[in-house]
Write a structure and sequence with these properties.
Blueprint (H helix, E strand, L loop, with lengths): L2 H17 L1 H15 L15 H8 L3 H10 L9 H9 L9 H12 L3 H4 E4 L5 E2 L3 E8 L4 E7 L3 H10 L6 H6 L5 H15 L2 H14 L6 E2 L12 E5 L6 H4 L4 H22 L1 E3 L7 E4 L3 E4 L5 E3 L2 H16 L3 H10 L11 H8 L12 E3 L1 H12 L17 H19 L1 E3 L1 H8 L10 H13 L7
Parallel strand pairs: 5-9
Antiparallel strand pairs: 1-3, 2-3, 3-4, 4-6, 7-10, 8-9, 11-12
Helix pairs in contact: 13-18, 14-15, 15-16, 17-18
Amino acid sequence: MSSHRLATRNLRLARLGLRGGGRYALYKARRTFASAARATELDTTFQLRTAQDVTNELGNMKGAMMKIGQMASYLDTGLPETVRATMASLQHDAPPMSPELAARQIFDELGRWPHQLFDTWDEVPIASASIGQVHRAITRDGRAVAVKIQYPGVAEAVASDLRNAGWIFGALASMFPGVDPDPIVGEIRARLLEELDYRREADNQRLFHRYVAGHPFVSVPGVVDELSTGRILTTDLATGSRFGEVVGWSEPERNLAAETLFRFSFGAIYRLHAFNGDPHPGNYLFNPGGQVTFLDFGLVKRFDAAETVLFEDLIKQMVITGDHAAFRLVVENAGILGRGAPFDDATVNEYFSYYYRYVMTDGPVTLDEEYAAGGVAHLFDMNGPYKELMRYLNVPPSFVVVQRITLGLIGLFAQLEATANWKRIAMELWPFTAAAPSTPMGEIIRDWRRSQDLDLHGV
């Protein structure tokens, strides 16, 4: 069956399911709940049983360091082994809450115990992260949901940690003497504090859910408003394969998964002026044919019009015109490169080209581990050929999240060994090129947008 016919069939089945009525919905919810098998159950030997346990486990900078470690995890590839080990130590998730503590959090936030709120409640979490964990449940009206519960007291602990976290970024000053760390620290602090507020995350998720409603390849679970608070977030339960499984899929399927990630992540900048800034492998669920469900919208960066225009100008001069002098002027005006740096335009262009190289070739490009490792070394090697240039570089706050997701996605694509004509796909997404579809996926999305009377360009 062709990909176009498959997508059309899936859309028809979805509409049929909506017409099936309450009994079918309840059956589907129970089946979804039952089929969400745990590949590996979380270790419950040590559980957080009280708020004091949370403080002991996540206090003294541990919670903040976990979050910062996750944000910086894209640096892992290509760095020296000692640095890799340090980064790995920052990426561990916290132990799960005990069933009793999780239930208490539900009661404190929603006023009723899980067995009173839900028809079915799974005491064993299906995911545990740095500030909370996720449980499966079925609501009283038969809706299969995922319930994310924040650890008690973790918001206050991490917020306190972040007020004293400036020293964490001291290494930036030694790596990049031209960097002003204060705005960067402020940006990261602001994003992490936002991530602690599940109401803000719910707003972000509603934005992206509306953005892709009915999309043939992308889905974002809906938010269950009446079961969500600042520390509880309840959404539709999604199913699919985890990233680790997708790595073992066939090459065509891996390429389709990567194309969907690329289209969604970068297309949103120009259509929504927003960026989902956490390309963690655990934040996606995959199904064959390029179907991807995006999870976790705690870390979302929203851009104003001037910032979006800056991204467009950088791409235009680097990729479209290839004008080295014009590109240098853009990065100088943006405060990325100090004015008067004693380097020719070609050297400046070559250093920054890593961010754009895979969209500069009009032909198939494979993003593999060598590409990812070479790029990180290229950008951060203080003993490499650009060590003097790096003394004149700065990172504006608006670029912190952009760099995070750009490098993070390249790392994911490298694990998939994804191959595509990235330039042609990107030119579909860039509003200043707005090219015709270059892949079957692009054609299906165009046809869907036409049927919905939507702007044709974007994800």
